[in-house]
Amino acid sequence: MIKAFILDLDNTIYPAPSISHIVFKPIYQLLEEHQQEIGRNKLPEIKMQMNKKAWQKIAEEHGFNDELTKKGADILRETEVDIPMQAFSDYELVKPFEVDKFLVTMGFTKMQEGKIKMLNLDQDFKETSVNDPEKSEDTKKEVFESILKRHGYKPEEVLVIGDDPDSEIKAGKDLGSPTVLYDRQNEFKDEQASHRIQNFSELEAIVAQYNHQ
Question: How many structural domains are present in the chain?
């Protein structure tokens, strides 16, 4: 029996690229200023990664020096999101499920809390959590474990839903929870999660499968 959902935010509830040209404009400018040391050919990839990965992970992956890493973190730490945002249309299909819902998102606190506010998500979730790498060394797995422990769920009772096989999906798998990879663009392979969907209309059949075992 599925008793709870844990959902990711970016690219699971709303399309991150829809606001990136505004939110990340100062970071794009910073990257342009440092393109000689980064490598001009890497800039398009890094800009795309900004929609999917934490700044700290991007900096480590591309070998940013300490100065650039700090400058970027200083900008993003104070970035507020106060512009109109629109969730994916099929997100509405998640709301009617009569289970506890938890939102867990990784990123800078002020930025992620702004997104939650602009999308009016507090009313949809039992808890919303921002996993800020600057404030905690906890991985998503550890955040998920805390939710299970505090609310008395067994791993098999919690469905973990997100768009990143290497983040929330891996964390859910490591916990022994069923996982749903939200893959709108059909980018990934089925074996990376218990289930893979392109639209939340597919979620009902998945939940029914567990509830009728």
Answer: 2
> Do residue 102 and residue 175 come from a single domain?
yes
Tens digit of pLDDT for each residue in 56-111?
A: 999 999 999 999 999 999 999 999 999 999 999 999 999 999 999 999 999 999 99
- Please state the pTM of the whole predicted model: 0.93
The residue type found at 154 is: K
Q: Which pLDDT score is estimated for 23?
A: 96
Q: In Å, how far are 113, 148, 192, 211 from 168, measured between CA atoms?
A: 19, 14, 11, 22
Residues 104 and 186 grouped into a single domain: yes
167 & 141 share domain: yes
C-alpha distances out from residue 42 to 58, 61, 75, 156, Å: 11, 12, 20, 41
